Amino acid sequence: MENEAETRRNPSLDEEELRRFERVAGEWWDERGRLRALHAINPARLAFIVEEVKRWRGERAGAFRPLEGLSAIDIGCGGGILSEPMTRLGASVTGIDPVEESTGVARAHAKTAGLSIAYRTTTAEDIAREGQTFDAVIASEVVEHVADLGSFLRTCRSLLKPGGLLIVSTLNRTAKAYGLAILAAERVLGLVPPGTHDWKKFIKPEELEMALGDAGFQRRSFGGIVFNPLRGEWCLSETDLAMNYMASAEAV
Q: What letter does residue 200 receive in the DSSP assignment?
């Protein structure tokens, strides 16, 4: 009954997904562990965030600390692997996650690194009910795990100041994504824990674009994240959205 009440209070929560992340919470900062794929792709995600903030701000973006003065909430922050570099680039970050073990790891790591980040074990819906708003909402690898995409995006909209910026990263529902993200990454190579992803919940860009419009966002832009075998790293792509991709949108 308690879980049912929590789901009604926070309709985007998926209890089964939460249990999966609870099982790996202690491994967030093990760059060679079961979450190493997230660490590998993190620089590309951060690059997209920086570029979109620069575009959104125009000339106000600093060259060395391009997120200076930006208030941002990192939804589903996990152990803080994206919150920390955003903080180093100047942002004032609030990191939230419903998994207490993850936010505990995040707090401890930030303290060791000498970083001031406001981590909270809570949900986006609860923060919205408190009336807090931010310049930017970041939801990295979150939308494919929520129970109700539309409800979640409307909550993100309510967390933004007028004209604020939403940035999400997710996976496309394609045969390529199934082959690489599930068959290869989970079942063969063990790059992420088995069961991390449900291919049926992957989101096509056109579906996300429509959902963003319905939730009150405009000027939506998309970019892909692809693996460059010559450089041995993940890079941004303007055209290839077949697997991992990111999107930004402004609140109307």
A: G
Give me the domain span that covers residue 55.
2-251
Collapse the DSSP code of 37 into the 3-class scheme (helix H, G, I; strand E, B; otherwise coil) and give the result.
Answer: helix
Task: Report the domain count for the chain.
Answer: 1
CATH of the domain at 218: 3.40.50.150
For 177, 239, 248, the CA distances from 230, given in Å and listed in that order, are: 21, 19, 28
pLDDT band for position 15 (cuts 50, 70, 90): confident
* Type and span of the H or E element at 106: helix 100-113
**What is residue 32's predicted lDDT score, i.e. its pLDDT?**
83
Q: From the DSSP assignment, how many helices (H) and strands (E) are in the chain?
A: 9, 8
Contact between residue 71 and residue 91 where contact means Cβ atoms under 8 Å apart = yes
Pairing of strands 244-251, 217-228: antiparallel
**pTM score, whole prediction:** 0.87
